[in-house]
Specification:
The complex is a heterodimer of chains A (537) and B (453). With 537 residues, chain A is mainly α. Helices cover 61% and strands 2% of the residues of chain A. Chain A has three domains: 2-251, no CATH class; 284-439, Serine Threonine Protein Phosphatase 5, Tetratricopeptide repeat (Alpha Horseshoe); 450-527, Orthogonal Bundle (Arc Repressor Mutant, subunit A). In chain A, strand 2 (500-503) and strand 3 form a beta hairpin. Chain B is elongated, with a radius of gyration of 30 Å. In chain B, strands 1-3-2 form a three-stranded antiparallel β-sheet. Helix content of chain B is 62%, strand content 2%. Chain B has a domain at 2-150 and 171-244. The chains are: A mainly alpha (537), B mainly alpha (453). Chains A and B meet through helix 14, helix 16, helix 18, helix 20 and helix 21 of A and helix 17, helix 18, helix 21 and strand 2 of B.
């Protein structure tokens, strides 16, 4: 029986020093105490903190006793434990001193009670790491807390008396506790412990934080333990309790939050945030909720138009995407974020980033969240042409529906693919000049390669020479000058004379010579090597 | 139950791995399944198994207590699997392929321990047990996935710290897991350092084949490359490939060929596929059909050869797939080719041969050009009795007209030139284009090197 009680105390994280100091048999009417504890639910520790360990040695976290001279606490076993060396902040020392100032002393509160209260308050703050956050100077004094608690206990009793017909019993039990000084202390204790969070007037954040629930298993364990120990008397008490508490459940705090499944709802209100790869669970305080993210997107769009600083924009978009991910936001807004980032990345030729967006968009589109799936499917085809990935190309072809194949952008991309596959440079460059949306940025990635391959063919097929005009037109150059530049770039400036000759009004490109010299074979081969881009699907 | 353990005892005595594996076959008739499962309950099964196994291995001195315990574990899992299978058969509400899969996976783990534990060290002749475990692991995983796709509302919430969402509604959760398990099995076989004759390395090809099948199914054929790499790296101390059972070699070569095919390494692909073709049992039509599905397009690209009608005769599906294309290529009918390709697109794409077959258009074009050349007839003889010479200077317009007609598309002469340039570059046609004269000048000897079409 006792063991269950102490377990309860331990779990609940109460400063159970007195209860530890007496051997179990000293407590005969344990039920009473237990019921007090139950009636004023013990403030359970926040589950994530290692409370048990910390509370196991409550003395350790007490400020040095020497700071207030008349410290004649009867030594408890816990006190004899080796003290942890802790640097107490000046503010805490001041708080302790203030508590023991003669003008602040309350005659109704014994020194022991005060010490225990202090111990509890401070060690709690220490355990929660709030030692430096709490404004100790504004903190309520322990004696005030105790008085407040007593008052509340009285109110409760009064309430109980007014509603409960069996009040004699309850008072009697309470009285048994009160009469014996030792018992009384423990009784006081139960109420004292519950006080801070009940009032939460003068307790500050540290006490606020305590109001968390024990994990469901623990609670169940406690319930079971209680049930086992229950005798009739206790049942009666419980019933009573139930009546003025409004049910068994209410003896505990509101149901604990559902177990964290990684879902975060952000609270951050700043629009801009640097991207940082997450290595642990996200901190809600640093995550922006959707409305804020929407503003962020507008801001970024504006900034991209006015400033055009890609590295900044990319970084911001990545953090934006991260915030969406950790909050599992999947909707049309998500789609538009990825689409815009993909377009910007395309414009800047950042294929790695583009491809990440593309991958995400692919699955987002599968969820039917709107956006521009056709436009991006067309990009994906062009992208595959660039990366020369037959497997992925085949996958895309599998995915396309007949209706999609009729879409102008997709049809264009498919035509490009077929032209590239068959080496039809004529058609390829016609298509190049007529690319819908932003596909031209992607095509730019592989036109040089295709031009080189086409040059190989032209050199081989035409004798003796062709007008430069043909190359300009067939390979989609904007002017003869550009075509000439392209040739010079690949045959080398020294040999230009050999391959380009002016006759009359025209410049002629000596294809036969270039063919025997195999000018374009090497570069073409080099350009056709596998393209490897990070983040590829 | 008795029969199972009698067989078990016999197999252990004879050291026959395949017989032993049969005792673990979960594909039993309904009645057998019930019989096996109902012989015991959860409390009694272990003792029962122990009794049976001990009784049937008494005469084998090398089977010690540890090994018996291991077999008890294995058969305990087997019994549990039977129970889950029975639940499915009985349409019990709690029945689930996932449970079957999990129970079977446990069986694999028990067996794995048997091989790895220094106390038991299961001899290598027992590896057929691994084969059967791997085989059904895959079957059960596929069933579990199917079951999952039928009840899609089991959303799993996992915490991930990835930057982006990975929402790919995964159709192959269990099969992927199966891939992991099979990979364990593969390493188990690969890393056996025992003397070759007693090595589990004999099992790698079979397990590799299971892995290939799994990886292809989950649409990540790239993962197969790791397996291939491991096998090639350890080739020095592997059992000779010729010594592996033919059935395993065929599958292995087939996948090796298909993998090369998907990477567009057609010559290597052809080599492997041909090997598979030659090894394949003559009556294994289905397998031969699969091999041909890739070998034919492969051959088309490497040698520009088409399958004969006789070859395709036993395979109506292949005929349907390839004959329209072949006819169009042969006659140089571009339009018919385009139509046939379009017609079969879905099927071709599914089999991943579309991109390869597309290249057949070049050959069709070549045949068309050749017709233009032949239609040009002969040069007027310069001398009496001279060998008649074909006209080798063909006006470009003739090609333009022919290709326009053939493809039923409106092409300008520049595009036709481009197509011809491709033909010349790819070696289908010998000659050159002369722009000033608007002529195509073809080689006097062998303007169209034979392609065999």
């Amino acid at each position: 029986m006792w063991s269950s009680v102490s377990a309860q105390n331990g779990q609940a994280g109460q400063t159970g020093a007195p209860s530890y100091s007496y051997p179990p048999p000293a407590y005969t009417p344990v039920q009473v105490r237990q019921n007090f504890a139950a009636a004023y639910p013990p403030p359970p520790p926040p589950p994530s903190y290692p409370v048990h360990v910390a509370y196991g040695q409550p003395q350790a976290s007490l400020p040095p006793q020497a700071t207030y001279p008349p410290a004649q606490v009867s030594p408890t076993p816990a006190q004899e434990q080796p003290k942890k060396k802790i640097e107490w902040p000046e503010s805490v020392r001041r708080y302790v001193q203030r508590s023991f100032l003669p003008e602040n002393l309350d005659p109704s509160v014994t020194r022991q009670e005060m010490e225990l209260k202090l111990k509890e308050t401070i060690s709690q703050a220490n355990d929660q790491g709030l030692m430096y956050q709490i404004n100790w100077d504004a903190m309520g004094l322990p004696q005030q807390m105790i008085v407040a608690e007593r008052k509340r206990a009285m109110n409760m009793a009064a309430q109980a008396a007014s509603t409960d017909t069996n009040r004699d019993d309850s008072l009697a039990t309470a009285a048994t506790g009160m009469k014996l000084s030792k018992k009384r202390k423990s009784g006081d204790f139960a109420s004292a412990e519950s006080a801070p969070w009940r009032t939460s007037v003068d307790s500050g954040p540290s006490l606020e934080d305590r109001i968390t629930n024990p994990s469901p298993e623990k609670r169940q364990a406690t319930e079971e333990a209680t049930a086992k120990n229950t005798n009739n008397f206790q049942k009666q008490l419980e019933k009573r309790q139930k009546r003025f508490d409004g049910g068994y459940r209410s003896t505990y705090r509101s149901p604990s939050p559902p177990p964290n499944n990684g879902l975060v709802v952000g609270t951050c209100q700043t629009l801009e945030k640097r991207y940082l790869r997450l290595t642990s669970a996200p901190n809600p305080a640093l995550v922006r909720p959707e409305p804020v993210l929407k503003q962020t997107l507008e801001l970024l769009k504006r900034k991209w138009r006015t400033e055009g600083n890609y590295s900044y924009i990319c970084d911001q978009f990545k953090s934006l995407r991260q915030d969406l991910t950790v909050q599992r936001i999947k909707n049309d807004f998500t789609v538009s974020v990825y689409e815009i980032h993909a377009r910007i990345a395309l414009e800047k030729g950042d294929l790695g980033e583009y491809n990440q967006c593309q991958t995400q968009l692919k699955s987002l589109y599968q969820l039917g969240l709107g956006g521009h799936p056709l436009e991006f499917k067309a990009y994906r085809i062009l992208y595959c042409i660039h990366t020369m990935n037959p497997g992925a190309t085949n996958d895309i072809l599998t995915d396309l529906t007949p209706a999609e194949k009729k879409d102008p952008a997709i049809k264009h991309a498919l035509d490009v693919r077929s032209a590239v596959a068959l080496g039809n440079y004529h058609r390829l460059f016609q298509l190049y000049h007529d690319t819908p949306n932003m596909g031209a940025y992607l095509m730019d990635m592989f036109v040089t390669r295709e031009r080189l391959l086409a040059m190989c063919k032209i050199c081989r097929a035409y004798k003796q020479d062709v007008k430069l005009r043909l190359i300009t037109e067939e390979l989609g150059f904007e002017s003869d000058g550009q075509a000439a530049e392209f040739i010079i770039e690949h045959v080398g400036p020294q040999q230009v004379e050999e391959f380009l000759q002016t006759r009359g009004d025209d410049i002629h490109f000596l294809t036969a010579k270039a063919s025997t010299a195999r000018c374009f074979e090497g570069p073409a081969q080099l350009a056709s090597k596998k393209v490897d881009i990070k983040g590829q699907i | 139950m008795d029969t199972i353990f009698n067989e078990f005892g016999v197999a252990m005595t004879r050291r026959n791995g395949y017989e032993l594996a049969q005792t673990l076959n979960p594909e039993l008739s309904d009645d057998m399944l019930r019989l096996v499962y109902k012989t015991a309950n959860h409390a009694s099964i272990k003792d029962l198994l122990k009794r049976h196994i001990r009784a049937n291995t008494q005469h084998l001195p090398h089977v010690d207590l540890d090994e018996i315990q291991m077999w008890v574990d294995v058969f305990h899992c087997y019994w549990k699997t039977c129970g889950e299978l029975l639940a499915i058969q009985d349409r019990s509400p709690k029945a689930s392929w996932v449970k079957v899969y999990e129970a079977w996976k446990e069986l694999f783990s028990a067996l794995h321990r048997g091989y790895m534990s220094p106390k038991v060290e299961l001899p290598a002749w027992t590896i057929p047990c691994l084969y059967i475990v791997g085989k059904y692991l895959r079957v059960f995983a596929m069933n579990a996935d199917e079951e999952r796709s039928n009840n899609p509302n089991q959303e799993t919430t996992e915490t991930n710290f990835q930057d982006d969402l990975d929402m790919e509604a995964d159709k192959f959760v269990w099969l992927r897991d199966c891939g992991v398990q099979l990979n364990r099995m593969f390493t188990l076989c690969l890393n056996d350092r025992a003397n070759l004759m007693e090595s589990r390395k004999w099992g790698i090809y079979n397990v590799a084949n299971l892995l290939f099948k799994t990886y292809f199914k989950v649409k990540s054929p790239d993962l197969c490359k790791n397996v291939l790499r491991a096998i090639i790296a350890g080739r020095g101390d592997m059992p000779p490939f010729e010594a592996i059972p033919k059935s395993q070699r065929v599958i292995f070569k087939y996948y090796q060929g298909v993998l090369e095919f998907l990477d567009e390494n057609y010559p290597q692909a052809e080599e492997h596929l041909t090997e598979a073709w030659n090894l394949c049992h003559k009556d294994a039509l289905r397998n031969k059909e699969l091999i041909l599905t890739y070998l034919i397009p492969c051959h088309l690209v490497t040698t520009a050869k088409l399958p004969s009608a006789k070859l395709l005769e036993p395979y109506p599906r292949l005929q349907q797939l390839f004959l329209p294309l072949c006819g169009a290529i042969k006659k140089g009918e571009l339009h018919a080719f385009d139509l046939a390709l379009q017609e079969g697109e879905d099927e071709f794409v599914k089999r991943r041969i579309y991109l390869t077959l597309e290249r057949g258009r070049d050959i069709a074009l070549r045949n068309l050009c050749r017709r233009v050349f032949l239609a040009g007839g002969f040069e007027p003889p310069k001398e009496e009795n001279a060998q008649p010479l074909r006209r080798t200077r063909v006006p470009l317009d003739e090609f333009v007209a022919a290709i326009r007609l053939g493809s039923q598309e409106k092409l300008d002469s520049d595009e036709v030139e481009c197509l011809l340039a491709n033909q010349i570059y790819k070696g289908f046609m010998k000659g050159y284009i002369s722009r000033p004269h608007n002529m195509v000048v073809l080689s006097k000897s062998g303007a169209f090197p034979p392609t065999g079409v």
